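User: Fold this; tokens only.

Assistant: Input:
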Amino acid sequence: MWGDLTGQELPGKVPQMADVVIEVEGLVKRYGEILAVAGISFSVEKGEVFGLLGPNGAGKTTTVECIEGLRIPDSGEIKVLGMRAHPNNHALKARLGIQLQGTAFLPRLTVEETLRLFASFYPRSLPVGELLELVALREKRRSQVKTLSGGQRQRLALAMALVNDPEVLILDEPTAGLDPQARRSLWDLITSLKGRGKTVLITTHYLEEAECLCDRVLILDHGQIIALGSPKELVAKQSEGTPIEIHLGSGSDGVDLRGLPGVKRAVREEDTVVLYSTSPVETIRAVSLLSSEGKLVLEDLVMRRVSLEDVYLILTGRRIRE
């Protein structure tokens, strides 16, 4: 049935490889004088979970809205499933599943009524019972939407995005505002969708989430790409040393820790300092000595493994914040 849903190829373009389902080339989007996306290019392969990472305002949502066809770029080209992304490309929309940052529900409808309503918008849809089972809401099928918890609402929003059995699923900050248990539940669900052969594009500012879920990640900052690769590759490229996170008490403002033994880089935000050391034992010994001499007030010290957070911290000099 889906064979009839074809789009027009861009003139003069070489056909894409079969395993590339999203191709973005030179995407630029402005809002007045604000440059939200500054000429980025990337591709997403079939069957992978691809993450767009960055703080609020980095350009993540603008990028996915252009991919979804909800916004028209100022310049650049976007193709999804071999078709041009455009607000009027209804054939493409029938093959996408989209979960926006905020989903508006009809509060007095039940969960089952909500899914049946959305299923009626498509020529083909999954059985409501299968959707309820997939997102673990079968026991809530007769509950009004207004009675659902935050995590249950997010799972319902995901079920709505899956109602047309899409080939490509685009999730914009799907776990924002959820408690850790609800977030983990959605992680499991997204992993199961990959197992069903879905291609998933997800935006998030939770770096732990990206490390857990994504095959590859693209890190955005101020509308520009600052890193692209698998989480493992990006972490492996970080050669600044072992991160030692130090929380300082009041009275430590004048202490400069950059010259301690083994330290290759020091990043400070307020009362937290992250030292990247090639000789962590020597570095910790030196910090302890400064503390015992009363030259700094040490509240906590943690040596940890390198993570995507460190990649972002080293590249930008700050943490991702909501």
